[in-house]
Amino acid sequence: MNASSSYFILCQFSTGRSWVERDPALMDWQSTISDISTGQIENVVEVREAPSWRDVTKDTAEAVINEWAMDDEPVSYERYSWIEQVIGTRAARSFLRAS
Q1: For the chain, what is the radius of gyration of the CA atoms?
Q2: Model confidence at 72, in pLDDT bands (50, 70, 90)?
Q3: Helices 77-86/57-71 angle, 10° precision
Q4: C-alpha distances in Å from residue 93, one per residue of 36, 43, 54
Q5: What's residue 57's pLDDT?
Q6: Phi, psi of 26, deg, nearest 5
Q7: C-alpha angle with apex 96: 76 to 68, nearest 5 degrees?
């Protein structure tokens, strides 16, 4: 991903969808992946790269699931569903689901 880009994250909340407010200094690619993979940001619907506003949701999901795969831990139902929705069933099935 582009080092000079910022990444905006759209999430689903109980009240609807909203862009997550983040510190502009921490909107880089690695921080974005870390925030999602560690659970600081959940229920991700879409990720956009600025300034181009390109949809990088799939790229983000692939990077996040690589982090989760390195943990070698079962994933929650929500994470499993997100993988399945963004990447596909085959990728989701490569993870054990937590009970």
Answers
A1: 13
A2: confident
A3: 140
A4: 20, 19, 28
A5: 96
A6: -120, 35
A7: 65
Domain boundaries, given as residue ranges, for the chain: 6-93
Residue 22's closest CA among 10, 14, 13?
10
Tokens at residue 9, please?
């994250």
Q: Which amino acid is at 7?
A: Y
* Full DSSP string of the chain: --TT-EEEEEEEETTEEEEPP--GGG-SHHHHHHHHHTTSS-SEEEEEEETTTEE-HHHHHHHHHHHHHHHT-PBPHHHHHHHHHHT-HHHHHTSPBP-
- Check the CA dihedral 96-81-68-60 and report its sign: positive
Integer Cα distance of 9 and 3 in angstroms: 17
